[in-house]
Amino acid sequence: MRYDALPDEAVELYGSYFSQIAIRESSVVMRQVRKELVSAVESMFGRKPRVVTAKPKKGPLVLLATADDPELAGLAEIGRLKDLPRDGYIICRTEQESGGCIVAAGNSDAGVLYAAFHLLRLLQTEQGLDGLPVAEGSPNKLRMINQWDNMDGSIERGYAGQSIFYRHDKIVRDMTRIRDYARLLASVGINAISINNVNVHRTETKLIAAEWLPSVAKIADVFRGYGVKLFLSVNFASPIEIGGLQTADPLDKQVQRWWKERAEDIYRYIPDFGGFLVKADSEFRPGPFTYGRDHADGANMLADALEPFGGIVIWRCFVYNCQQDWRDRKTDRARAAYDHFLPLDGKFRDNVILQIKNGPMDFQVREPVSPLFGGLKQTNQMLELQITQEYTGQQKHVCYLVPQWKEIVGFDTYAAGEGSTVAKAVSGELNRLPLGGMAAVSNIGDDANWTGHPLAQANLYGYGRLSWNPQLTAEQITDEWVKLTFGDDPDVTETVSGMLLRSWSIYESYTAPLGVGWMVNPGHHYGPNVDGYEYSKWGTYHFADSRGIGVDRTTKTGTGYAGQYNEPVASLYGSPGTCPDELLLFFHHVPYTHRLKSGSTVIQHIYDTHFEGVVQAEQLKREWLTLEGKIDPSVFRETAERLDMQIESAVEWRDRINTYFYRMSGIPDERGRTIF
Ligand code: GCU
């Protein structure tokens, strides 16, 4: 959204169209479309466009309108709009009338907004308009961002400063930054946001009460202009904590009434309120279990309160026993979400969506895809990703996650035969369900560059683009982001794209090996600590001893987790001979001498990847340095500094991991490199 001046050639080709914009400001969204376009055109073409509300007889011009606008009558292309989803749009060129016209038409106001951003993106990435017409629509009804912001201004797992929403237990008054954020999100198709941490503490519990609703409504007003619906995370024990009741039992009539009244109140302030996001019976948060009820009882009670207003409940499946005894080898945290929620399939109201983390554990650099996606058949579901890099370098390391997310959405669950991808499960297509989509934990804060690491912006951008269209390739998304951010210099595009696309695999290579996960410092989760979680209550073990490592999750001899998948995936993961190398230790306990498909032994793989990971981290730095003078100096410096932190941390990871496993196994490195 830099809207840099376009090259002369583009100005010559398109300048006349963009000298005149026809748009009716029939809604707050259409007003923002007009504003965005006018300021973008002024800055790209160097001239303020003339804005008219009715289409003039003569072109050239750009016309923005919704499908029902009479100005579009008779335009052949517009007929295709009805085949597109609700926020779908078409951009086309008509040369019939004198001067010609570029039409950006949407099925809804938000569709027009997305069309406008698409048009601007084409110009900014210098693709020009030769590729028109384009027709797009998202298969995902919800494309959501979850803020984990607390009202004291802190952000749970935030690595880019303080909250842009709250400070000192209050909602900020100056909404400039929030407005900018809404623009950023809309530009990549995001249409929903929850604005407070899923761990709803004392102060935040009151966000649904009269005290805070007027201020929450002001935030909702800002997002509304950009087609983004506002949600709140709620505390399941609210009836007790702020309602003065003795219980939060979902089957209690008073409790039900209390939530209904809350809903009425909220919708008085925010008529298009999205609904509630709920973390219940998870990591010490209250929930229906306290009252001997299940998650369907809890979610349905809230859903009934919101239903008259069109609201929905997004209920998280991150439910497991976080008080496990490490000596207990039967309990397996990986099984928990499936074991809790599969028996409830079909018991949830139509306005409930289950939000499922991508993997069965917790956003590790490598995990298998949660088997719930291929299990639930009668329940709306949503994929939860983590943009904030809690376990992937905390925005000190460059770790571009789009390639990981592509694997996740493309994963075949075989729920209804081959091709039953996660993308289809969460869009609702697979099981013909009405609601669904994607959500992701945000990585932004009040740092001037939004994300701490300048290159971490690519993750936010990439998430938005992917949630709009899961079919886009990682390369397409990367290319767009790099061009939009750094311009069109081929050196820069090639270097930065190359760095981003390799970064996840580089990060994986010097951290926990072969899918085993969790070798991080407890609490803050940064940096290596092989046994940090080994004897804890969190259910996160690797079971390394002098002979081998890994978790036996097979059905025959292990926890049975592998059996939660449909065939042929269950069998694939169920045997060390067929299990993909990168997930071997997630599913199997094997000796260090076990030979991988790559030909290497497990121990040699550990040494090789850890040595190579540091070499690659250093290489990232070298590549970045070649761009000096071609990148904004402050972005260049900030990134170079972070690459130094990454190298330092990668060295620490390499040496700790290699030394630990050398001491455990007693097997030396075949290549005789230094291990301490
Ligand atoms: C992780 C994370 C927590 C977070 C939790 C969740 O465990 O470390 O900070 O609250 O996930 O997703 O609810």
Automatic annotation (TrEMBL):
Residues annotated as domain Glycosyl hydrolase family 67 C-terminal: 451-673
EC number, as in UniProt: 3.2.1.131
Gene3D superfamilies in the record: Alpha-glucuronidase, C-terminal domain (3.90.1330.10), Chitobiase/beta-hexosaminidase domain 2-like (3.30.379.10), Glycosidases (3.20.20.80)
GO function term, MF aspect, one: hydrolase activity
A Pfam family per the record: Glyco_hydro_67C
Annotated ranges, domain Alpha glucuronidase N-terminal: 1-119
Catalytic function, reaction form: Hydrolysis of (1->2)-alpha-D-(4-O-methyl)glucuronosyl links in the main chain of hardwood xylans
Entry keywords, A to Z: Carbohydrate metabolism, Glycosidase, Hydrolase, Polysaccharide degradation, Xylan degradation
UniProt KW Mitochondrion keyword: no
TM ranges: none
Family: Belongs to the glycosyl hydrolase 67 family.
Subunit structure: Homodimer.
UniProt name for this protein: Xylan alpha-1,2-glucuronidase
Organism: Paenibacillus thailandensis
